[in-house]
Amino acid sequence: MYQAPPMARKPFVVNDAIREKVRHLAGLGVPQDDIARIVRCSPKTLRKRCRDDLDCGAAEANAIVSGCLFAADGDGDTNSPVVLVLPDNGRDPELVPEPQDVRESPER
User: Fold this and answer.
1) What is the model's pLDDT at position 29?
2) In a domain, 62, yes or no
3) How far apart are CA 28 and CA 6, in angstroms?
4) Is residue 88 part of a domain?
5) Residue pair 45/10 in contact by the 8 Å Cβ criterion
6) What is the DSSP string of 21-39?
7) Which domain holds residue 46?
8) Per the domain annotation, does 107 fall within a domain?
């Protein structure tokens, strides 16, 4: 019985549209395995052929977020108070002594 050799896969062609899509999806934080599924290639091929696009997409997204954080509200007021909200640690405030002022010196 004769069997023909298996057919080779169709080559994965990387064009500008694929590069832009990979860069955009990487910037959104989509996992590489999912990006590979979207552009119809294996994850290994994606990393090999689109490494720069994967890296640049994530870096560009980080730069945009950083820029937005630094330019928040555009007010330029650097003396704005910062409020930290900490989770309840379950301690009873009556059982925990109040912190002493560091400037106070204990009587000797």
Assistant:
1) 92
2) yes
3) 37
4) no
5) no
6) HHHHHHHTT--HHHHHHHH
7) 16-71
8) no
Is the residue at 53 inside a domain? yes
- Residue keyed to tokens 């009873």: 92
Compute the radius of gyration of the chain from its Cα atoms: 28
**Tens digit of each residue's pLDDT (9 = 90 or more) over 96-105:** 666 666 555 5
31: left (phi over 0), alpha (psi -120 to 50) or beta: beta
Which tens digit of pLDDT belongs to each residue from 55-88?
999 999 988 888 888 777 655 556 667 776 766 7
Give one DSSP letter per residue of 48-106, joined into a string: HHSHHHHHHHHHHHHHHHHHHHHTGGG---TT------PPP----TTTSPPPPPTTPPP
Say how many domains are in the chain. Answer: 1
